[in-house]
Design a protein that fits this description.
306 residues; mainly alpha; two-stranded antiparallel ribbon; 13 helices; 2 strands; globular
Length: 306
C-alpha cells in the first residue's frame, strides 16, 4: 500500500507540473506546436511503458478504432485548451477554474447516460456557484485565461463522460494509441504555427546555466502527460477510480498553485483563494456523492424525482 500511496503522490506532482513546463518555454514554442510535441513524446512513452505495467503485449486496437479515435481527439482538445489557458492566466487560476469539471461531468452524465441526481446536489451546486462568483473570473486582468479554464472543464467532462459510456474509465493498452491520434490531429500546428525555437536555449541567472527550450517540451510530454497516465494505469490496479478522483480533485490543484508561487512568484488574489477553496470543496463533495451513487446504485438511495 505504501508503494501505491507514493506513486499516487508522484502522479499528483507530475500532473501539477503542466503549467510549470508550459510557462518555462517562455513562449519560444507556439502553444499549438507545444501541445503536439507533448502528445508525441507522451505517445512514445506510453507505447513503450504501458505494456510493462499491464503485462500485456502491445496490440493495435483493430476492434476499437472508433473509440480510440474519438478519445484521442478529445484528449487533444482538452490538453490544447488547458495549456492555452496556462499562457493567459496564473497556474492557480487555471487549476481552480478547471475544477468545475465534475459539475460538467454530472450534467453530461445526466443528459446522456441517464444518471439521476441526489437532493444534496442542490447544495453542492449552490456552493460551487458561490465560489465562482467570489473568485471573480471576469476581473483581475486574466479574464481570457479564466474563462478558457472554465471551458476546459467542459471539454474534460465530455471526454470522461464518453469514456464512462464506453466503459473505458481506466488507463490501458489503447491509451497510447489514443495519444497517437491526438498527436496526429495536432501535427499540422508544426506547419501552421511553426516548429518554434527547437534549437534555442534560455538562460536562468538563478541557476547560472542555459537550458534548451525543447527540454521543457520533452518534460511536458514525458513527465506531465506520459508518466501521469502510466502511473494512473498502475494506481488503478490497487485503488478504485473514484478514490483516485477524490484525491486528485483536491491535491493536484493545490500542488500546482504552490509550484506557481514557488517558481514564478504567482500569488493569487484573496478572492481567488477563498472562491477557489469553495469551488474545490464543492467539486470534492460532488465527486464523493457521485462515487457513493455508483457504489450504491440499486439500493434505493433518495434521488431527485423519486
Amino acid at each position: 500500500m505504501r508503494k501505491t500511496v507514493l506513486l499516487l503522490g508522484l502522479i499528483t506532482v507530475s500532473e501539477a507540473t503542466i503549467g510549470v513546463f508550459v510557462k518555462l518555454t517562455d513562449g519560444r514554442i507556439p502553444i499549438q506546436t507545444l501541445n503536439f510535441y507533448a502528445l508525441a513524446f507522451a505517445t512514445a512513452f506510453l507505447i513503450a511503458a504501458v505494456p510493462l505495467a499491464t503485462d500485456q503485449r502491445l496490440r493495435f486496437p483493430w476492434g476499437n478504432l472508433t473509440d480510440t479515435a474519438v478519445i484521442g481527439v478529445l484528449i487533444a482538445a482538452q490538453i490544447s485548451v488547458f495549456n492555452f489557458a496556462m499562457t493567459r492566466a496564473p497556474i492557480a487560476n487555471v487549476v481552480i477554474f478547471w475544477s468545475v469539471a465534475p459539475f460538467f461531468t454530472f450534467l453530461f452524465s445526466w443528459l446522456f447516460l441517464g444518471e439521476r441526481a441526489r437532493w444534496s446536489y442542490i447544495l453542492i451546486f449552490a456552493l460551487a456557484l458561490a465560489g465562482i462568483v467570489l473568485a471573480k473570473p471576469l476581473e483581475g486582468g486574466h479574464m481570457v485565461g479564466n474563462l478558457v479554464a472554465l471551458g476546459d472543464g467542459a471539454v474534460y467532462a465530455a471526454m470522461v463522460t464518453y469514456m464512462r459510456f464506453e466503459g473505458k474509465t481506466e488507463v490501458g493498452n489503447d491509451t497510447g494509441w489514443s495519444m497517437l491520434v491526438g498527436a496526429v490531429v495536432l501535427s499540422p500546428a508544426v506547419v501552421l504555427a511553426g516548429p518554434g525555437a527547437v534549437t534555442g536555449t534560455i538562460h536562468y541567472p538563478a541557476l547560472g546555466v542555459a537550458l534548451p527550450v525543447m527540454l521543457w517540451a520533452v518534460c511536458l510530454g514525458l513527465v506531465s502527460t506520459g508518466f501521469a497516465y502510466f502511473g494512473i494505469s498502475l494506481v488503478l490496479r490497487k485503488l478504485r477510480a473514484n478514490v483516485y478522483s477524490l484525491v486528485d480533485i483536491i491535491v493536484s490543484p493545490v500542488v500546482a498553485a504552490f509550484l506557481g508561487y514557488l517558481i514564478f512568484g504567482e500569488v493569487p488574489s484573496s478572492n481567488t483563494v477563498y472562491g477557489g477553496a469553495m469551488l474545490l470543496a464543492a467539486a470534492f463533495w460532488l465527486t464523493r456523492e457521485m462515487s457513493r451513487s455508483d457504489a450504491g446504485r440499486g439500493t434505493g438511495a433518495r434521488e431527485l424525482g423519486e
